[in-house]
Amino acid sequence: MSRRINTGPRATRAGSALGTPTRGDFLTRLIKYIPAEIVGLYVAVRGAVPHEADPAVLWWLALGAWVLVPVYFWVATTRGGTPPMILQIVFASLAFPVWVFAIGGSPVTSWAWFNEHQYVASIALMFLTVIFGWFEPRPGT
Question: How far apart are CA 89 and CA 71, in angstroms?
Answer without folding.
Answer: 8
